[in-house]
Write a sequence for this structure.
C-alpha cells in the first residue's frame, strides 16, 4: 500500500496597533518551504485584537484565492485562536 505524505501550508499571522497606526503581518509558507511574505498597513486605526482578526482574515482570503485548504495556522493572539477554534 502506498501512502502520500501531504504537508500543509503554514500560516503565521500577527497584528498590532500603535500611535502611528495599525499593521498586520502575514507569513504563508508552502509545503515546498517557499515563504512569500505579505504585509499590510491599514488606514483605519483599530485595537490590537481587531488587527489580529484582520491579519487572519486577510491570510485566509489569500489562501482561498490560491485554492489551498490544508493549512496549519499559528498566531500569538489567544483570543483570536480560541474564537476560531470554538465549537458551535
Amino acid at each position: 500500500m502506498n501512502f502520500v505524505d501531504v504537508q500543509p501550508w503554514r500560516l503565521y499571522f500577527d497584528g498590532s496597533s500603535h500611535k502611528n497606526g495599525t499593521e498586520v503581518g502575514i507569513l504563508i509558507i508552502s509545503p515546498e518551504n517557499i515563504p512569500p511574505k505579505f504585509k499590510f498597513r491599514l488606514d483605519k486605526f483599530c485595537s490590537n485584537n481587531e488587527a489580529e482578526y484582520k491579519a487572519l482574515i486577510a491570510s485566509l482570503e489569500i489562501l482561498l484565492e490560491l485554492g489551498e485548504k490544508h493549512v496549519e495556522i499559528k498566531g500569538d493572539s489567544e483570543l483570536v485562536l480560541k474564537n476560531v477554534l470554538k465549537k458551535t
Observations:
- DSSP finds two helices and four strands in the chain.
- The first helix runs from residue 48 to 66.
